[in-house]
Amino acid sequence: MPELLNLLLVIVLLFNFLMLGTSRLRAVIDAAAAQGILLGVAYLAMHGASGFRALALGVAMIGIKGVLIPRILRDALRSQGIRREVEPFVSFTTSLLLGALATGLSVVFARTLPLAAEDANVLLIPASLATQLTGFIVLTTRRKALTQVVGYLTLENGIFIFGLTLIEAMPFLVEAGVLLDVLVGVFVMGIVVDHISREFSSIDSDELTELRE
Amino acid sequence: MNALLVAVAAPLAFALVAFATPSERVRPWLLPAAALCQLPLVGFLLASAGTPAAGDWIGLDPLGALLLGYLSVLFACCAFYAPPYLRLRRERPNRVFCTMLLVFFAMMNFFLVSQHVGLMWVTIEAMALCAGPLLYFNRNRRSIEATWKYLLIGSVGIALALLGSFFLGYSALHAGLESSLVLGDVTLHAAGLSKPWLHAAFVLLLIGYGTKMGLAPMHTWKPDAYGEAPGLVGALLAGGATSCAFVGVLRFYSVCVAAGDGAFARELMLGFGLLSMAVGGVFMVRQRDYKRMLAYSSVEHMGILVLGAAIGGAGLFGALLHVLGNGFAKGVLFLSAANIHRAFGSKSTDDVRGALRVVPASATLFLLGFLAATGAPPFGPFLSEFTILRAAVADDRFGVAGAFLALLLLVFIGMGATVLAVVQGDPPDPERDAGRGRPDLEPGRGRPDLAPGRARPGGERLQKLAPIAVLLVLVLLLGVWVPEPLATALWSAARFVEGSP
Amino acid sequence: MRLLEAALHLAVVLLASPLLLGVIQRTKARMAGRRGAPLLQPYYDLAKLLRKDVVLSRTTTWVFVAGPAASVATAVVASLLVPFGERVAPLAFAGDLILFAYLFGLGRFFTIAAALDTGSSFEGMGGAREATFSALAEPALFLALLVLVSLRRSLSLSGLVGDDTHVLWAAAVAPVALACLSLFVVLLAENSRIPFDDPATHLELTMIHEVMVLDHSGPLLGAALWGAAQKLFVQSALLVRILVPLPDGPAPLRWACFLAAVLALGVGIGLVESTMARLRLRQIPMLLITASLLSAFGIVLLVR
Predict the structure, then answer these.
(1) A100 and chain C: CB distance < 8 Å anywhere?
(2) Is the distance from CB of B88 to CB of B4 less than 8 angstroms?
């Protein structure tokens, strides 16, 4: 079972790279969706046997992170008619290298952390840190508001991976609440992005500079 | 399930009714109705609820009790301001506004009564999401920008807080304890928690909840959000949401104290507090937009709160008193600033002058609110700031006390310049002043409901002034006479945070 | 026995490599809905070219002739370092993987020099691109080989490939898979396949490899073509030996499986070429860096 978890986490990390390197907005959203599905599967693998509620939550997770949220984002994308991210503040190649550096550092750093016995061999902590850092890089270096939302989603995914270590402590109610909040958050952000594009006729966050000292 | 949830359910029920009500004129009145319902409800709950048992997800600790009462009063005053305000904004549908305002209030109450770290997170995120549509009420470019920044920065901060919550749970797991996320359980076993994870957890939680508070350097959403929000929303955000976030910080601080790591937490809070005060003061100098000035004032006051908590003991008492005083003062400031904004159609001191002549009552309230917020006696914040100062000196922390005083003076000067420019002088004359000022603060920019240019005297209704006056009286009362039950509540809250029985 | 196998090895690399080209072309044609040229078309092309005259420009020197010659020579010597159907390559020693990489580098150097020797700007442009992309592909190649080195603890290609690749896969699926993916990208890059270069284009501005041999004719062109086919064969052979464990049986069986696997890889290359378009030149470095990063990631997974 740790092998399955490790495999899923490796694929999640590969999707991080895809997200950092591609300029196609559709691919970025799809990468986030794929990560969500993989995390839902990981949750089911770790927790699915313990009853109907865990199963339901895992399926809901896959549904929300893998289907619903990406659909909201794709609709926002389609209503704007843009396809590609403009050259970000840090070039794509550089952000890819930054992401690789972040992944390497996460692996190294995770070995120095005091971990509970059962978590030492699994990739959970490194994958969590690396995904969060990827989310940060996407959030801060991209210009399009939609990509920033996907960066936020990736950040949440990374935090969620860490939460997988706490399976017993975070009962269903709270996980469901977290999931719901993320969903509504993305929904609200999607609406705002839509309004931004209508008001400013582009979703370059470079445009959002009217308010300043 | 638990009687305390009634405090959440009641506003939610009113929200549902507000959503279902078709009439645009009747709907705003549901807000004062909900507030009037809430006041006796909260009073009853405060009188009857006991301390939370360990393992309870919902419970009323002394801190939550204090804030619950305060919040109901603040909401009541703001709620009575809402109907006249919305009547003036009739060109805009107010269904989303009223519903979201009530849900926002419900979520704040929910936050105060939750005792589970995860539940706290869910409710504070829900608060932020409800505030989004509220900020966006004006539906112009500037509001969108403000809402976007608020949502993005707030969400990132809150995500860090979630990670911190997970670290807290992991610190128990690593120590071999049962990893529960109920605050009561965590505090009980605090001494055994794994220290590195606890430190990391507190840092992240402070940053995350500090973002919601608007501590520097995570405050960057504040000027935009408070600058563009309707005055009513600004008052609730500045007085309510930030106070709730402060409660969150204090709860985690108390876990650190119970674990024996209070000193580490206090150092951190001291740093953030001084930085926030400095940032607030510096940016207030030469601030021409008086609503953004209020935002920086809020940053500064959040710094004072965290500073007081860092000093501890009597300082914490002062900080808790300051929560109340600051909240009411902010209410006065935001609501009267909204009146002035409506009268002049502009937020910039380039265009707004002589408010005392144009809207005398609101301008007077604005001026008095400024005095209250900057800690002039006999208002409440003076008492709380003085208590904090005295605690710092008693602790031999002269450097901190000196910095505190200096920054307060800086804020007083900076804020005073702007406020006095707004209220004093002659009202502007459009022919005389054509061609000056900043285009982005042009009168009525993006606000088709405000007539640009000439100031409009009169138009002040008692309905819009009465709530502000009530808030002012409350601030005054806090400075002159702290009633015995309130003092007891403050002391028990302070003792609860610091772990002494 | 070893001598016999070595002779067979040489025969295969010299004679069977154009067949790989034919398989790729045929796959692409079938995917496009055409019947395509016969499988043995490259042989017919080589035979035709051998019969023709050479035309040498007056500006060229011996370097111009050395280009195709070096390309063939280096490819043949490099093939001797890679085990085909046998267990150990004819010329195996510790550190031969470095020689492997740089033999191809030598061949590339002479090809570029021959291109520059003509003094034409098209060839010069092609040479510049080839040099750049090969420089970027080199870390990818070495990092992929590093993954295998750290798993096998051997510095010889024969040792890396070993006799039991299924053990390799069982031990560390993800790193080896990533290394193979990197090697595949390097294979496409080094041999000027889509998405790096379109071998069927006739627009000189878009060519990389084709343009470098634009001025060669007759047997020289035939040699260049043959050298390219051998290079493709040898590099495919390396990838195939890592991917596919050969059965533990008599030599003819092993050789037959090996050839079948290489031709299957050819079909795979044809499929990849048919389904992708050529990348814009600005995006090629990105792809190569990604290949390097994938291998680096594989190494990180291994040493964790």
Answers:
(1) yes
(2) no
| Residue C213 contacts residue C130 (beta carbons within 8 Å) | no
> Can you tell me the distance from the alpha carbon of C20 to that of C42, in angstroms, rounded to the nearest whole number?
9
**pTM for the complete prediction?**
0.83
Which residues pair with residue A84 across a beta bridge? A24
User: Is A192's CB within 8 Å of B144's CB?
Assistant: yes
Rounded Cα distance between C212 and C224, Å, is 10
Record: contact A107-C173, CB cut-off 8 A: no
Let me know: does B305 contact B246? Beta carbons within 8 Å. Answer: yes
CA A58 – CA B373 distance, rounded (Å): 50
Angle in degrees, CA A173, A178, A180, rounded to 5: 95
Q: Is B317 on the interface with A (CB under 8 A)?
A: no
Q: Return the bridge partners of C167, or none.
A: none
Task: Work out the angle between the directed axes of helices B314-344 and B462-480 (0-180°, nearest 10).
Answer: 160
Provide the token pair at A44. 């089911």
- Structure-token pair, residue B394: 């008693």
Q: Which two tokens stand for residue B214?
A: 């608007």
d(CA C131, CA C125) in angstroms, rounded, equals: 10
- Residue C124: how many CB atoms within 10 A of its CB? 16
Tens place of pLDDT per residue across chain B (501 aa): 577 888 888 899 999 998 988 888 888 888 999 999 999 988 888 888 666 666 678 888 888 989 999 999 999 999 999 988 888 888 888 888 999 999 999 999 999 999 888 889 889 988 998 998 899 888 888 888 889 889 889 988 988 998 898 888 888 877 777 767 788 878 878 888 888 888 889 999 999 999 999 998 999 999 999 988 998 999 999 999 999 999 999 999 999 998 888 889 999 999 999 999 999 999 988 888 889 999 999 999 999 999 999 998 889 999 999 999 999 999 999 999 998 888 888 888 877 888 888 888 888 999 999 999 998 888 889 999 999 999 999 988 889 999 999 999 999 999 999 899 888 888 876 655 555 554 555 555 556 556 544 445 445 677 788 888 888 888 888 888 888 888 888 888 888 888 764
Please give the span between the terminal C-alpha atoms of chain B, in angstroms, as a whole number: 28
Neighbours of A201 (CB within 10 A): 10
Query: What residue type is assigned to position B171 of the chain?
Result: S
Element (H, E) at C104: helix C96-117
Quote the minimal CA–CA distance from C209 to chain A in Å: 25
B19 at A interface, C-beta within 8 A? no
Are the Cβ atoms of C286 and A13 closer than 8 angstroms? no
Here the ipTM equals: 0.87
- How far is it, in rounded angstroms, from Cα C203 to Cα C78? 31
Query: Is chain A touching chain C, with at least 3 CB–CB pairs below 8 Å?
Result: yes
Best of A181, A186, A189, A209 to disrupt the B interface by mutation (most B CBs within 10 Å)?
A181
B450: left (phi over 0), alpha (psi -120 to 50) or beta: beta
List phi, psi (to 5°) of C283. Answer: -90, -10
Which residue is associated with the tokens 């031969």? C96
- CA dist B441 and B444 (Å) reads 8
Q: Domain ranges in chain B?
A: 3-498
Residues of C in contact with A100 (CB under 8 A): 293, 296-297
Give the chain C residue nearest A105 (alpha carbons): C300
User: Nearest-CA residue of chain B relative to A148?
Assistant: B152
Cβ of C293 within 8 Å of Cβ of A123? The answer is no
* Distance (Å) from the alpha carbon of C302 to chain A's nearest alpha carbon: 11
Rounded to 5°, the CA angle B67-B69-B73 comes to 110
Q: Please give the residue of chain A at the shortest CA–CA distance from B197.
A: A114
DSSP SS3 for A84: strand
Which residues does residue A144 pair with via DSSP β-bridges, in sequence order?
A204
Enumerate the β-bridge partners of residue B182: B116
